TrEMBL record:
Its EC number is 3.1.3.71. Its cofactor is Mg(2+). PANTHER family: 2-PHOSPHOSULFOLACTATE PHOSPHATASE-RELATED. NCBIfam families: PRK00886.1-4. It comes from Clostridium oceanicum. SUPFAM superfamilies: ComB-like. This is Probable 2-phosphosulfolactate phosphatase. Transmembrane segments: none annotated. It is an enzyme of class 3 (hydrolase).
Length: 249
């Protein structure tokens, strides 16, 4: 298995993901939201790039959807939820359809659509995602959502942990230079919060008094679901069997 890494959504193009498994990471906070919502029993998450697209999908069926997301880390006016995973509790999302739009994460997912498989990872479920990656047996490209098109420390260290989980189980692995660097940084900075506290994205979230989100998103392997994106929607991959062509609405 070859493993490569893309540093932000703005660097994704079809040639980099085609015929590979893509794992999208936006640990602060979109992929942590998606993983949490799926774990808490939502029917599906529909990731879209723009607020306008989210409103269009929910038009005339507003009661059928939870609108969630952020712009500049803040809740979007008129939406039900922000981009805090702590809002996506079981009592709020069980059996519901969620439309999510975020500054970085949902953009990264939608730019990866030419991949053979698209998995959603955070620290919360990295070990389970690594198992799924190995089972699929494709070359892997890890897609960091980044922050406003630029490199993000938090996604990078999360990717390093995912790589570590994979190579502990799969011996036939070849890392690109950037993937080697990512893994090396994780091995020497296993205190995740201690490492990412100087990240601009971390500082932005902390400034908004969202320390509980930060603490939660930095927990390793407390969830075992593996969200997968197929045909515009995200579910735990085990729930897609025989329903891959299901319509979004």
């Amino acid at each position: 298995m070859n493993i490569d890494l893309i540093i932000s959504a703005d660097y994704v193009d079809d040639s980099k993901v085609k015929d590979k498994t893509a794992v999208v990471i936006d640990m602060l906070r979109a992929t942590s939201v998606i993983t949490t919502a799926i774990n808490n029993g939502c029917s599906k998450v529909i990731p879209v790039v723009t607020v306008e697209e989210a409103l269009k999908i929910s038009n005339n069926k507003r009661c059928d959807f939870i609108l969630g997301g952020e712009r500049n880390a803040l809740k979007i006016e008129g939406f039900d939820c922000s981009n805090s995973p702590l809002e996506y509790k079981k009592e709020n999302v069980y059996g519901k359809n969620i439309i999510l739009t975020t500054t970085n994460g949902t953009k990264a997912i939608n730019k990866s659509v030419k991949a053979k498989n698209i998995l959603i990872s955070a620290l919360l479920n990295a070990k389970s995602v690594s198992d799924r990656v190995i089972d699929l047996g494709n070359d892997l490209v890890i897609v960091n959502a980044g922050t406003y098109g630029e490199f993000s420390i938090d996604d990078f260290i999360c990717s390093g942990y995912l790589i570590d989980c994979i190579i502990k189980k799969e011996k036939d692995v070849k890392l690109s230079d950037i993937a080697k660097t990512c893994h090396y940084i994780y091995l020497n900075n296993k205190d995740i919060i201690g490492f990412i506290k100087n990240a601009d994205h971390y500082k932005r979230i902390k400034k908004l008094n969202l320390e509980k989100d930060l603490d939660y998103c930095c927990r390793k392997d407390i969830i075992d679901v593996v969200p997968e994106y197929i045909n515009g929607q995200i579910k735990d991959y085990r729930l897609f069997k025989g329903n891959e062509n299901e319509k979004i609405v």
